[in-house]
Amino acid sequence: KKTILTGIKPTGQIHLGNYIGAIKPALALAQSDKFQPAYFIADFHGLTKIHDSKEFKQLSYGVAAAWLAFGLDPNKVIFYRQSDVPEIFELNWILSCFAPKGLMNRAHAYKALVDQNNQMGRDVDDGVNMGIFTYPILMAADILLFKTETVPVGKDQIQHVEIARDIAESFNHHYGETFVLPQYKVEEGTAILPGLDGRKMSKSYNNTIPVFAEPKRLQKLINKIKTDSLPPEASKDPSTSSLFTLYKEFATFAEVENMRTQYEAGIGWGEVKRELFEVMNRQLEEPRAKYNELIASPETLDEILLKGAERARAVSVPFLKEVRRKIGLSV
Ligand code: TYM
Fold first, then answer.
1. Using CB atoms within 10 A as the burial measure, which of 42, 62, 157, 270 is most buried?
2. Mean of the per-residue pLDDT values for the chain?
């Protein structure tokens, strides 16, 4: 079976962008019997940012609970913590010897930090640890170790998947066909879910809506979503409205069509926000309850994740041996 694989890093509360961009499409793909899904908590990636052990642990459990609350079936999906599969890290080193430094210089996340430093007149390397710099190599190891064919992600991760492909090609060129060349799969329409301020919803922009926010807070956050200042009676364009983008994700087809008509006829933003809250809360209520239950039981989460890591290692240990043999290392 072909592997589909994706990860989420524990650097904040799971937000709507993570859910719409990655969790929801990944769980839909997991329904198909054609694939072997492997979904994981990218805690080594999270370590590039979070250096408070208690918070870090809590955030990791949060990501695990979120996947499960949305219906991930650990019997079907190989579900694990990245740091419980040491072969990933071993492959990380091997791949780093095939990753041109120039390629890393061009990686978006690193470049964004450097650009920011330049803009603020700081030293270019301010606040940049080597984990951030080599981040795409570790991600390539995540993907290539499991012969991943498809990586369902949001648009911001496309470059990383392309880097994994480049590194795999370079390795294959030296040692013969070893790694499968992965492809990304991005949902059209919600490739970039907007946040409160209209920019990409992102932990680094502080504009997120946590997917499991309690109803009152959820409503408050929805009310904060930036809109233009058109009066209620003015006709509005759904295609440029963050509220509509979000509404589409949670409402039924009929509700969406109805909302579209209301946009054209003229509807006040306050009313749109109320209706958005209704449909969102309707869909999130159940997973939220499940999430709260799971988060209160870290032993259960550990048990599930360790079992998942065992399944992952049943694949990664023999494959890494093959890689070592090809390179000329001892096996
Ligand atoms: P992370 O933790 O930043 O985000 C997890 C997933 O959520 C998607 N996403 C979004 N999608 C649409 N709109 C948004 N506003 C939005 N914000 C986040 C991301 O695209 C991602 O799919 N490097 C990865 C984690 C990772 C990984 C991997 C992913 C590590 N190894 C291997 C795939 C395969 C990351 O930082 O995701």
1. 42
2. 96
pLDDT for 204 equals: 85
- Residue list, ligand 1 pocket, CB within 6 Å: 5-9, 17-18, 20-22, 42, 45, 139, 142-143, 151, 153-154, 156-157, 160, 192-193, 200-202
Look up the CATH architecture of domain 212-291: Orthogonal Bundle (1.10)
Q: What is the ipTM score, two decimals?
A: 0.99
CA 252 / ligand 1 centre spacing (Å): 26
For 78, residues 6+ apart whose C-beta sits below 8 A from its C-beta are: 36, 37, 38, 39, 308, 311, 312, 315
pLDDT greater than 90 at residue 189:
no
Spacing, Cα 42 to ligand 1 middle (Å) = 10
Domain positions in the chain are 2-99+134-193+298-327, 212-291
The pLDDT tens digits of the residues spanning 134-167 come to 999 999 999 999 999 999 999 999 999 999 999 9
The pLDDT of residue 171 is 98
> Which residues does 140 contact at the CB level (< 8 Å), separation at least 6?
95, 99, 160, 163, 164, 167, 168
